Backbone:
């Protein structure tokens, strides 16, 4: 069964973007999520354990995961075509 590339990319983007947003907000009050946010923030410009930083992380997380999801779905479909 082939994957719909757009749907898979959108699903991964939404999932990771919301996860980054929630971790950013949780990082305001708790240390463990803040450590995650600071680490990922080295790759996502503006991502920090602040309300505005959480929005930046959500944007970059969505973009990053959507591109990765599109590439993964495309690769899956190519391998499926070749080996099945």
Residues:
């Amino acid at each position: 069964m082939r994957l719909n590339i757009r749907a898979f990319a959108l699903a991964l983007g939404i999932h990771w973007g919301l996860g980054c947003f929630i971790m950013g907000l949780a990082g305001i009050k708790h240390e463990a999520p803040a450590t995650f946010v600071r680490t990922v923030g080295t790759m996502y410009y503006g991502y920090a354990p602040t309300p505005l930083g959480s929005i930046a992380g959500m944007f970059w997380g969505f973009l990053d995961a959507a591109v990765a999801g599109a590439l993964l779905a495309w690769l899956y479909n190519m391998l499926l075509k070749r080996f099945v």
